[in-house]
Amino acid sequence: MVNYASAGYDFFLLNSGSSSIPSDDIKTDALNYNNSEFKAVFSPSMNASSGAINTGRLVGRNASLSDISQQLIDQNDKLQNSYVNAKDTYTRQGEINEWQAQNKLDSLFFLQILFLYFSIVVVLLYLRQAKMLGSSSVYGTMGVLLLVVIGVLWNRVSYTNMSRDTRYWNRRYIAANPNDLGGTQCSSSS
Length: 190
Prior knowledge:
mainly alpha
């Protein structure tokens, strides 16, 4: 097998000025020359390949960053919408709590009236038993007080059923006809 030197190596030999170089040295010199030429050509192509790979990585990273930022924007939009929905929920819960508190106060008012009635009845019955008051005056007073208790109860029930706003406990219906307190609701809140 015959190894041929490249044209560049021949030029190298002519420049060196020596004509009696052993064949092993020529072979080694030619291989070294070819290897150095290969390295000189391969290094820039390797750098270009690394640049292309790095560019591809950067493009991929930019795409993933864009996806992440879009996901964060979507998550923030959902969170903002949930705050708006929560605000509506908290507002309605506040209205419900106000309604319950006012309902309990109204019930407490009636129970206080009832307690006063029974306290007075006990005192009147004691005075009748001690023969300090007559039976007719005791029963007459108890009847009048019972009418007052029933009147308070009827007033509260009729006001709640016919005039009270169902959403805002402390407000009253505004009826289409001012003489009709139990009429249809014209506006319940402003």
